[in-house]
Design a protein that fits this description.
Chain lengths: ~325, ~240, ~300
């Protein structure tokens, strides 16, 4: 057989369904097995960050990649989830498990309201509006220290014991696996959503809103669905973050535009409209960040340069490589 | 002399050429009209001549000089002016400012600019009346007038007209064609595309009919007028 | 809180004066952003970093080199003018040629990347200490109950002069007319011999130069440090949105309004809440009148 024939045979095999299943299982296996095997809190924290930011980026992708909506106040939205959950526990003794839900619901509400007021606006203005909404949220939290403790910091109780698993601050792995479960649920939901008729509607709206409207599709309804669901999920992640981190403060790096830019970069580098690309990009970027941690601000220069590079030369991000690996 | 197009192959994407080897000569001082059904490539041809599209093959000559690789903003210096399809006035600038911009390439030559403005105002007294008005509030016909007047500021030799009568009421179409007739009398070389077959034929010296991006028929006006019915029937 | 204070004439006078100075500051910051936004449609989110670089140039020229401060301001403007043209030609122009329909949104994201790179390169190169000057000119003017420093008056004066010069340039110079033409109908402008690419590059340069000028002029209020651009870009964005798309005079008016509102609220609440008010105003305008307060046209926003 010629070399070419062998190569294309191998390529076909590489792309076949059983092999793909194996690839997925392999990656899941890595996610599950690596942190306990390496048994280093430092590495586990990195994995937590990567998964969390990856999922947040995937949710962001639902908005920008599928409906063309830029939520430039995204970090502020996660702050709503985080603070609703934390304050509920702090002031009213709400259980952290319920806090995940309340965080999600509160953020969904904010998302719905923001969605409604942004209906008349075009892409760029949605970005600007959400930017100011996000910053307004953050500033409001800062300026009400009697209730939120503002920049002084709000301490958050960890999850209480569940099914015999101890969620004290020392047991990082418990948090990691809890996160993996949340992440799996969210990713599967997102995946189902974009493959459903909702996803079709989202993409149609992204491509040409006017045409979609003229086809009789209620673009308002679908834009609001998209935004509200994304906000809910982001709020849940925000709530998890609160309980995981243990202490919250509304600084720009945590809940301001810098965080939004970080997540946005992950989404763009992973490839808009791909969902899973965000996870890969998150691991890539968090990995790079840790590797270059010693060189401080240079890692942010790399982030920014990557974003510029992607916008100019690799508009579909990492997903351009998908054809080689998947 | 005049404009010569040889074997132009051009399109918006490489795979789908709209023009498949078009040939054309627009003789000096004459009105050459391009007819054809929709999609025949008439506007594409004008855009390629003017440099908005780069041809995949073929050449364009103006007064003997090859111009197919020049950009639109170099065309005026070659003496070719282009009337864009649709609105091309600057709505939030005055009539006079619009005209001044027509003379952009000679903006450093104050004398020449003044003379050109004066000449335009003589030819188009209605524009002189409204010189300080914002162009956007002029009527449709007046705006078209302004566009044509603006074209003449630099005294180009050749004028490309892309659908000059589109979107205008019949009475205004007559006015516009009156202006084109005056341009013809002033010995400009005119290459024109227009949906209004009857009107454009009335003013033509030579006519080309395109179909599917290729030359189909051509001939002097008288000859083409007789065959017009047959030609148009083909389009349907 | 004593409600009668709200209408106290002394407070109102003070507010008017301080508010005008603030407004002039914001107007100068916003002018560059509004110009670029209006002519090119690009919302340059790295505008604050251009301001920041202006502060560094000013610091370098006046403190390190010891040259007179008017020269510092001029150099800040000039350096940023050329740097802005460089950025436009290498980055934004490239994006425009590659991206399709949605290039405006993509340009916004691109400028975010530029922001991150510029800010952190500044951090690496210069460190995070604030480098400023206490004042360019000293002394205060006492006018009845109102005390204004000469410095702030000078800022008001220079900002007004620059605003006037910008207006005259856009309105009367041939380049200014070409820039306006390019924003109203780029295709038509091109057929008249105007090189649109060059227009965009120069416009961006002018916008950047204005940001640099602002950074130089306001050095005593905004010293040079890597993240100093955050507030200017937020204020500028607010003014541009409040004033209306591409409406440079509108943005300037909005700036004055914002300055006065902020000065007024500074009397009654802590500084932190002013940002919430600014943000709230922007959100309100976007809901109620997206085309901006001073825009005559009903710009299509949805």
């Amino acid at each position: 057989m010629t070399a070419v024939a062998v190569n294309s045979r191998a390529a076909d095999l590489w792309r076949s369904t059983p092999v793909r299943v194996l690839k997925v299982l392999f990656l899941i296996g890595l996610l599950i097995a690596v942190p306990p095997l390496i048994d280093s809190p430092y590495i586990t924290r990195i994995f937590v960050s990567a998964v969390m930011l990856g999922v947040l980026a995937a949710i962001f992708d639902l908005m920008i990649g599928y409906a063309g909506l830029i939520n430039f106040g995204y970090a502020g939205f996660t702050a709503v989830g985080a603070y609703t959950a934390a304050l509920g526990t702090f002031h009213y003794g709400v259980s952290p498990w319920a806090g995940l839900l309340t965080g999600g619901l509160a953020t969904a509400f904010i998302g719905l309201v923001t969605g409604v007021i942004s209906l008349r606006l075009r892409g760029l203005y949605v970005a600007l509006l959400t930017f100011f909404v996000g910053e307004a949220i953050r500033f409001s939290i800062s300026n009400a220290p009697e209730f939120t403790r503002g920049m002084l910091g709000l301490s958050v109780r960890p999850f209480p014991e569940l099914l015999g698993i101890d969620f004290g601050r020392g047991n990082l792995l418990a948090y990691y696996y809890l996160l993996l479960l949340l992440a799996a649920a969210i990713m599967l939901l997102l995946n189902w959503l974009v493959r459903s008729r909702y996803g079709l509607a989202f993409e149609a709206i992204r491509e040409d809103q006017l045409a979609t409207q003229s086809l009789g599709l209620n673009t308002t309804k679908y834009k609001l669905y998209n935004f509200t669901i994304a906000s809910f999920l982001a709020g849940v992640m925000g709530a998890f973050y609160a309980y995981y981190l243990g202490i919250l403060s509304p600084s720009p790096e945590e809940f301001g535009v810098y965080r939004t830019v970080e997540i946005l970069t992950i989404t763009y580098v992973g490839g808009r409209g791909t969902l899973w690309g965000s996870l890969f990009a998150a691991f890539l970027l968090i990995g790079l960040q840790e590797y270059f941690r010693s060189i401080g601000p240079w890692r942010l220069v790399i982030y920014g340069s990557l974003l510029i590079f992607v916008m100019l030369f690799a508009r579909r991000g990492l997903s351009s490589f998908k054809k080689y690996l998947w | 002399m005049g404009l010569e197009v040889k074997n132009i192959v051009a399109g918006y994407t490489r795979e789908v050429p709209i023009l498949n080897g078009v040939n054309l000569v627009a003789k000096d001082g004459q009105v050459t009209v391009i007819l054809g059904p929709n999609g025949a490539g008439k506007s594409t041809l004008l855009k390629t001549i003017y440099g908005y599209l780069t041809p995949q093959a073929g050449e364009v000559f103006h007064d003997g000089k090859r111009i197919e690789n020049l950009k639109p903003n170099q065309m005026l210096r070659e003496g070719i002016a282009y009337l864009l399809q649709g609105h091309s006035i600057f709505p939030r600038m005055t009539v006079e400012e619009n005209l001044e911009l027509g003379g952009w390439i000679m903006r450093d030559d104050e004398k020449r600019m003044k003379a050109a403005l004066q000449q335009v105002y003589e030819r188009f007294p209605r524009l002189k009346e409204k010189r300080s008005f914002l162009a956007g509030i002029l009527s449709g016909g007046e705006q078209r007038m302004l566009e044509i007047a603006r074209l003449t500021m630099t005294e180009p030799r050749t004028i490309l007209l892309d659908e000059p009568s589109v979107g205008l009421m019949p009475s205004l179409v007559d006015e516009v064609y009156e202006e084109i007739r005056k341009l013809k009398e002033a010995r400009y070389t005119i290459l024109m595309v227009d949906q209004n077959v009857r009107k454009s034929m009335s003013i033509a010296d030579y006519v080309y009919a395109l179909a599917l991006g290729e030359n189909r028929y051509e001939g002097p006006k008288a000859e083409m007028e007789q065959r017009l019915d047959d030609i148009v029937r083909e389009w349907i | 809180m004593d409600l009668s204070l709200l209408l106290d004439p002394y407070i109102l006078t003070e507010v008017l004066v301080q508010g005008s100075v603030r407004g002039a500051m914001y107007a100068l910051m916003a002018a560059g952003l509004s110009l670029i936004f209006g002519i090119m449609g690009v919302n340059n989110f790295s505008h604050g970093e251009l301001f920041m670089l202006g502060t560094y140039v000013m610091f370098f020229v006046t403190v390190i080199l010891g040259w007179p401060w008017p020269l510092g301001i001029a150099l800040a403007a000039a350096v940023l003018f050329f740097f802005g043209m460089f950025l436009e030609r290498t980055l934004i122009d490239t994006l425009r040629r590659k991206a399709g329909r949605d290039w405006v949104l993509d340009a916004f994201i691109l400028t975010i990347g530029m922001l991150v790179v510029m800010q952190n390169l500044a951090l690496i190169s210069f460190g995070s200490e604030r480098r400023g000057v206490t004042g360019l000119i000293s002394g205060v003017l006492v006018w009845g109950p109102v005390i204004v420093s000469y410095e702030r008056l000078m800022i008001l004066g220079v900002a007004s002069a620059v605003g006037l010069a910008l207006w005259a340039f856009i309105r009367f110079s041939s380049l200014g007319k070409a820039i306006r033409a390019a924003s109203q109908n780029p295709e038509a402008a091109q057929t008249l011999g105007i090189n649109i690419r060059s227009i965009y590059t120069i416009t961006f340069g002018i916008g950047a130069g204005l940001a640099g000028l602002a950074g130089g002029l306001l050095i005593s209020i905004y010293p040079a440090y890597p993240t100093v651009g955050f507030e200017p870009v937020i204020k500028s964005l607010a003014c541009v949105i409040l004033g209306g798309l591409g409406n440079v005079p509108g943005a300037i008016l909005a700036a004055m309004l914002l300055g006065i509102i902020e000065a007024y609220s500074a009397f009654f609440m802590s500084a932190g809440w002013q940002n919430v008010i600014t943000a709230g105003l922007v959100v309100l305008i976007l809901i109620v009148r997206p085309s901006g307060l001073f825009s005559s046209s009903k710009v299509e926003r949805a």
